[in-house]
Specification:
The protein has 239 residues and is of the alpha/beta class. It is built from 7 helices and 8 strands. Helix content is 43%, strand content 15%. Bound molecules: NADP nicotinamide-adenine-dinucleotide phosphate (NAP).
Length: 239
């Protein structure tokens, strides 16, 4: 039986490239997307390359959608070898004092509670795989150490909701890594770097191919792979 992976927010950008890479590596890919037309089109494009890719409707901030997605994978596969919590939103890009509480709550719903909800719903499937990886796609902007360091290249990128949501996601990584280690499930955070995508109006300087590298590496790690860590493609990052 081939290995399987679920990637949330995989209809475009970093998630899509990660899906392509894992499809190429022989994984069955559950391509998560909140929008059926966009998700279906992306899955068809990857299937046309000869990969085993299935569109899975999944809005990470909608509990019913998350549960329906887990139910479908349970019925059709019965296990999941890797989960990549990739879907996220930047929020309004307003100055911290102008970012509304409603916007910040929405950012947390997608970027923090979404990955928690998806991981919990798919836990029985990850456990059934015997050995599994969860990759939380975080950001350098979620590193408290880097964001407090005036010499950090992105020190001035001060997004209240987004940055703190990724710091919270890193906390989720540490907590779940400890809780799930006895079940053979590794949990890590990945920083893809500043990537040219719709997320930032294509201002990033890295390609989606470069961004996918660390995500793929963590998602495909074996039982001797790391857990409870924060990595980019050059190594370990400070929390
Ligand atoms: N780009 C960067 O420079 C950068 C840097 C550091 C970290 N990251 C992280 O990398 C990940 C991917 O970013 P990206 O640049 O590829 O972003 P992107 O181009 O904006 O793509 C985001 C994906 O998430 C999906 N999504 C948004 N809200 C969702 C929801 N509620 N439920 C399910 N899916 C949802 C989007 O779906 P729709 O197409 O339907 O909107 C899209 O597929 C994110 O976690 C981001 O925080 C990005």
């Amino acid at each position: 039986m081939s290995k399987s992976v679920l990637i949330t927010g995989a209809n475009k950008s970093i998630g899509y490239e990660t899906a392509r890479r894992l499809g190429e590596a022989g994984y069955r890919v559950w391509l998560g997307a909140r929008d059926a037309a966009r998700g279906q089109a992306a899955a068809e494009a990857l299937s046309a390359l000869g990969h085993d890719v299935r569109f899975l409707q999944l809005a990470v901030d909608d509990d019913a959608s998350v549960q329906a997605a887990a139910d479908r994978v349970t019925r059709e596969d019965g296990k999941l070898d890797a989960l990549i919590n990739n879907a996220a939103i930047p929020g309004s890009y307003a100055e911290p004092i102008n970012e509304t509480l409603a916007d910040i709550r929405h950012v947390y719903d997608v970027n923090v509670f979404g990955p928690i909800a998806v991981t919990k719903a798919f836990l029985p499937l990850l456990q059934a795989a015997g050995s599994a990886n969860v990759v939380n796609v975080s950001s350098g902007l979620g590193s408290l150490s880097l964001m407090a360091d005036q010499s950090y290249l992105f020190y001035g990128a001060n997004l209240l909701g987004y940055n703190s949501s990724k710091a919270a996601l890193n906390g989720v990584t540490i907590s779940l890594a400890k809780a799930l280690a006895p079940l053979g499930i590794r949990v890590n955070s990945a920083n893809p770097g500043y990537v040219k995508t719709d997320f930032n109006g294509h201002r990033g300087h890295r390609s989606v191919e470069e961004a996918a590298e660390i995500i793929v590496r963590l998602a495909t790690a074996g039982a001797d792979g790391p857990t409870g860590g924060f990595f980019d493609d050059e190594g370990v990052l400070a929390w």
